[in-house]
Prior knowledge:
Blueprint lengths: L15 H16 L12 E6 L5 H12 L3 E4 L14 H11 L2 E5 L5 H8 L4 E3 L6 H15 L5 E6 L6 H10 L5 E6 L8 H8 L6 E4 L2 H4 L5 E4 L10 H7 L7 H4 L7 E3 L20 H19 L15
Helix pairs in contact: 1-5, 1-11, 2-11, 3-4, 5-6, 5-11
Bound molecules: phosphoric acid mono(formamide)ester.
Amino acid sequence: MNQRFNHLIDMDDYSVSQWNAMVKLAEDIMRRPESYADKCRGKIMATLFYEPSTRTRLSFESAMLRLGGKVLGFPDAGVSSASKGETVADTIRIISCYADIAAMRHPKEGAPLRASLYSKIPVINAGDGGHPTQTLLDMMTIRRRKGRLDNLTIGFCGDLKFGRTVHSLIKSLARYDNIKFVLISPEELRVPDYIINEVLEPRGIPYIETRNLEGALPDLDILYMTRVQRERFFNEEDYIRLRDSYILTAEKLNLAPADMAVLHPLPRVNEITLDVDDDPRAAYFEQAQNGVYVRMALIMTLLGLKDPKTGEVAFEC
Length: 317
Ligand code: CP
């Protein structure tokens, strides 16, 4: 137990067995959603999004509504009192009077953590430097596709430098047994050194760095594609030069195993062509759907609500 015991700020706040419990609860919700339809009746979720979002915000709202709760939030940061200079600490003190749980996306790394220190209600990090709920839904998707979260070779392709979901998923999967990573990127968008030096090397986890997507495809269980993130570049010319470094097409997918799964946190731009969408290996839309179930499981867990199947809180925080 730590001081963030009833929040989700970073995946490391919880153990691997707690992650597994969360994914299993999400799978049960997916199988029989009607059993959970009233679990949050009378509860309110605040969505505090200071950066754009489609999936994360709306799937949190959908999750709370599907649990029988209600949601409130401002449409964008510009119409909140942050635009008048209000601090995150003061904002969450106020939101604690209006809601029972809050999900926060913020451009400043550490803002959700800071909010959690002043909050009377559970705070969920919906994306700052990390993106833990994306990691949970990625893990659920991998488990549903492959039946396991260990003994996997996982390729990450594209923008591995700025891709926050990539860093978070590598760090989490590195805690499972017999995982191999294939890191496919241009030189300029290599995974940050700390992932190599602080996560992979100390644990002796096998990895290769390569520029060659086609060469890597035959050996992969999972291919995690990413968008080159225009908003993170200081120089538009660099973005234009790098944005189409990797484009997964149906033709290239012929090189991959028949049971490989293609994941992408979305939104996509050019990096997966539309003809891949019809391939059974395309898992990115079900990945977004899994986000609702994982967030339902997380909301229930952080509110201390009991799993109707077992009568237990999903996991003890
Ligand atoms: N995957 C993801 O975080 O999408 P949004 O930015 O639309 O929330």
